[in-house]
């Protein structure tokens, strides 16, 4: 789930432990804005009906050839394969990639989303779930990714991504927002993961307000719509390239 390749791999080791029978395997998630939180490895192995409604809706919206970014243990890729889709599942964690292969994901890749090869292959759906838009790291990374994705998004294709507005993390007891408007965007949060004493390298994760995502999408030549929202400030967005942007890619 991290956005750059590193040698340490606590996520991969936790997923492998779970697959090997340790159903209690649990990561600890550290951030610079909240207390440490446990993240059970089992969460990455959930079935369709254990997934949040936004994720189930995203799977319903998928079409054509699919690229699943930050695929983890392959829960979404396997469900889509079962529905007859052709899916490539990508993750930066070597352990996650191995777990996906062992679980039967037919096509996996080990690199980050900024290193997707310019092979000429195009995808009809780029899927980014579990607050998957966070993979871009920062607002600058968002702009970079949206530009990069134009090279492997098929005409008429779509990016389906979930994200959320985390302004609530900065509210005081009276509900006022304590945000430094001169500092980095408040949704750019630093994370690290620990498993069994192994802590991975810190990485940036982006939570982006829908209106800001729309601004960045339009700037990069996409049309954006909110497909669904839940009651926890999370949303599913669809971004499609405008006809003019497709012509510019030719």
Give the number of helices. 7
Could you tell me how far the N terminus lies from the C terminus, measured between alpha carbons in angstroms?
Answer: 32 Å
* Main beta sheet strand tally, sense and closure: 7 strands, mixed
Count of discrete structural domains: 1
Q: How confident is the prediction overall: mean pLDDT?
A: 90
Low-confidence stretches: 1-6
Based on the structure, what is the oligomeric state of the protein chains? single chain
The largest sheet has its strands arranged as: 5-4-3-6-7-12-11
What is Rg?
Answer: 18 Å
- The ordered H/E elements are HEEHEHEHEEHEEEEHEEH
Proportion of residues in extended strands = 25-35%
CATH architecture: 3-Layer(aba) Sandwich
CATH fold naming = Rossmann fold
Helix content: 25-40%
- The CATH superfamily label reads Vaccinia Virus protein VP39
How many beta-strand runs?
12
Structural class: alpha/beta
Principal-axes geometry comes out as: globular
The CATH class, by name, is Alpha Beta
Question: What do these coordinates show?
Answer:
This is Class I SAM-dependent methyltransferase. InterPro entries: Methyltransf_25 (IPR041698), SAM-dependent_MTases_sf (IPR029063). It comes from Hymenobacter qilianensis. Keywords: Methyltransferase, Transferase. One of its GO terms (molecular function) is methyltransferase activity. The protein is of the alpha/beta class and 250 residues long. It has a single domain, classed as Vaccinia Virus protein VP39 (Rossmann fold), CATH 3.40.50. Helices cover 26% and strands 27% of the residues. It has 7 helices and 12 strands. The chain has helices spanning 10-19, 53-61, 75-82, 94-103, 139-149, 210-219, 243-249; strands at residues 26-31, 37-40, 66-69, 87-90, 108-109, 123-128, 153-164, 188-195, 198-199, 203-206, 222-229, 234-241. The protein has a 7-stranded mixed β-sheet, sandwiched between helices. Strands 1, 2, 8, 9 and 10 form a 5-stranded antiparallel β-sheet that branches. Helix 4 (94-103) links the parallel strand 4 and strand 5 (108-109). Helix 1 (10-19) packs parallel to helix 4. The chain is globular and about 50 Å long. 39% of the residues are buried. The model is unreliable at 1-6 (pLDDT under 50).
